[in-house]
Specification:
Helices cover 58% and strands 0% of the residues. It contains 18 helices and no strands.
Length: 344
């Protein structure tokens, strides 16, 4: 699945998995009521397996199907991995990830590698991590503890979406490695609503406010900053909002100044319109700026949206049935009185 488009996410995150028939209509083992006991059942199975010197990895192929297996790092499974011989645990984890045919056993194998894996395991972990909705959390955790983890995380981040992207980008932010900042400033957000969980953290960790001068020469960064600002304007309950981001006013001003000098695209029109909407309907505190800044920013954005070339671009997007333009025309244009949507 990866070979036809090696630089892109897998279609539908690789689903359905080969074991879909066993899991589709299955309620699955119940999650323990005591969250601190999650993973203990799997750890007991691992302890019993590693206690037998003659036990082979393949004996675990179907051993976890009837117990609850957490997809996130788990202290009990990690402890079981650390109690046994490291080389044997690694061999077992590699076998389960490479040859397992049930997602439960593959998840346990990945958890073993996340606990005691080495740099040699990075290619295997990257591959299973492409199935990011389920295996992303453990793949990201495995890379966080590797010396070459930042490079591996960046590789995976380029190729995952949805929840997988949340797990991987959050791991990059926790590492706070300077070598990852250029990517975080330009490519972390792909426009998915789930980006709201990490957008504010990206802006903070990547020190966006210190890189604003780059907006004058970097159109990719301008577009990404627009996505960050849009996400932070409406991510309450998910992540850091503009209201609580200390550099919101300065970043908005820099974006407004530069965005209008670029050629129009449907995405740019949508982003600017959404920011203008936020500045129109919310208080200056919610936008993270002063009252004077709010009025100036709103007028600057509306001036761009009212340019003839930008209007033509928006109408072309609407004619092509672009979902963003359609939603904007139906729900936002009347409040902003945008000329691109006179009948909105």
């Amino acid at each position: 699945m990866h070979r036809p488009a090696p630089g892109e996410p897998l279609r539908r995150d690789g689903e359905p998995y080969p074991d879909d028939g066993l899991h589709r209509h299955r309620k699955g083992p119940p999650i323990p009521e005591d969250r601190h006991s999650v993973g203990k059942d799997a750890a007991l199975i691992l302890d019993a397996h590693f206690a037998r010197a003659s036990a082979l990895p393949g004996e675990l192929a179907d051993a976890f199907h009837d117990v609850h297996i957490p997809i996130h790092p788990n202290e009990h499974i990690a402890a079981a991995a650390e109690r046994a011989d490291g080389d044997r645990v690694r061999r077992t984890g590699r076998w389960l990830v490479r040859h397992g045919t049930d997602r439960c056993s593959v998840t346990v194998g990945l958890a073993l590698l996340a606990a005691v894996g080495t740099a040699d395991d990075i290619p295997l972990i990257r591959t299973i991590g492409l199935l990011s909705n389920r295996f992303g959390p453990l793949a990201a955790h495995a890379f966080e503890r590797q010396p070459a983890g930042v490079e591996a995380l960046l590789w995976l981040a380029e190729r995952v979406t949805g929840w997988g992207r949340v797990y991987v980008v959050e791991a990059l932010c926790r590492l706070d490695d300077p070598t990852a900042r250029p990517w975080l400033l330009r490519r972390a957000c792909d426009g998915d609503v789930l980006n709201g969980y990490f957008a504010g953290t990206v802006a903070t960790v990547a020190r966006l406010h210190e890189a604003l001068a780059d907006l004058d020469t970097d159109s990719e960064m301008v577009d990404h900053v627009g996505r960050l600002l849009h996400l932070m304007s409406d991510c309450g309950g998910m992540g850091l909002t503009l209201a609580h981001y200390p550099h919101a006013g300065a970043v908005l001003e820099a974006h407004a100044r530069r965005a209008g000098s670029l050629s129009p695209t449907v995405e740019r029109y949508f982003t600017i319109a959404m920011l203008a909407q936020h500045l129109t309907t919310e208080s200056s505190e919610a936008a993270g700026c002063t009252v004077a800044q709010q009025q100036a920013l709103r007028e600057a954005y509306l001036e761009v949206l009212d340019r003839e070339e930008w209007i033509r671009t928006a109408r072309a997007g609407l004619a092509a049935d672009d979902s963003g333009m359609r939603w904007l025309a139906d729900h936002r244009a009347p409040r902003l009185r945008l000329r691109a949507f006179p009948d909105g």
